[in-house]
Amino acid sequence: MALQKTLTAKTWMEFVLLGVIWGASFLSIRVALDVVPVVTSVFHRVFWASLVLWIVIWLRRVPLHLSARHWLAFLVMGLLNNVLPFSLMAWGQLYVETGLTSILNAATAIFGVLLAAVFFKDERLTPLRLLGVTLGFLGVSIAIGIQNFTSLNPASLAQLAILAGTVSYACAAVWARKHLTDLPPQVAAAGMLTSATLMMAPITLAVDGVPTFALPWQALLAIGYYSIIATAGAYLLYYRVLAKAGSGNLMLVTLIIPPVAIVLGATLRDEALSPNAYLGFAILALGLILLSRANRQD
């Protein structure tokens, strides 16, 4: 089924909006990291986002039927989908350009397909999926550059940290499908972020001390954006678009994120990516298109 036949004009606009919001999040995180330590930046992200989501749940009167099993699942989900990837990627952004970070982040979909094939019988690794995964890994490898696989320096380690974050995201997707599908998505997201906040709070106090709000207005604006809009708001929009477009189409939002991040990084931070990064993204994008098509054929 073609993308334009599946999405209404309104859903298409929401689809693009989600990509733009996530694309801009990479710049906002990098701006905050100029003055905010990595661990504290992650704490801000999960704390404010969880607070906003619980307010939304209260206003919408979403029913809560949570058991001890759910809270255990939230803890694992908060670790895999928030604490680890947010921390790894934020540290990686200290040494990797905003645009390249967003390109590497797209590998989440590649790892997600592989793990889904391992854990779920209905997610077979068909020839089309295998081709998409192969192109995806080739694109990521080209974007990183062969030299960064053979040398250990802050830039190469940072890129590997970002990729490790995408693996964590993919693991979280498997965990959520196994343990959280019986909950409203808003509740699952709020519980996950609350658990992540409980984990990040003592780490933040131990590593960075009590967070301060005596920050430049640019940093405060960046924190507000990536926590409230690009995390809490994006989760709500994500589930809305998912319900209308399906997971196969939603994978294509990954193609919108890097161009937005690249343009913002170049415009506002004078970042310049190597030709390898653009070539790698083009090949990765082709792989993602094939994976999206394979998902829609199922």
Short précis:
By secondary structure, this protein is an all-alpha fold. The protein contains 13 helices and no strands. The N terminus is likely disordered.
Could you characterize the architecture of this molecule?
It is a single chain. This protein is mainly alpha-helical and 298 residues long. It has one domain. It has 13 helices and no strands. The radius of gyration is 19 Å and the shape is globular. 48% of the residues are buried.
Provide tags for this entry.
single chain; 298 residues; mainly alpha; 81% helix; 0% strand; globular
* Helix percentage range: over 70%
Residue fraction in strands: under 5%
Largest sheet: none
Summed over residues and divided by their number, the pLDDT gives a mean of 88
Distance between the termini: 10 Å
Order of helices and strands: HHHHHHHHHHHHH
Q: What structural class should be given to the helix and strand makeup?
A: mainly alpha
The number of helical elements comes to 13
| DSSP, total strands | 0
- Tell me the count of domains: 1
The backbone outline, from C-alpha atoms, is: globular
Radius of gyration: 19 Å
Low-confidence stretches: 1-5
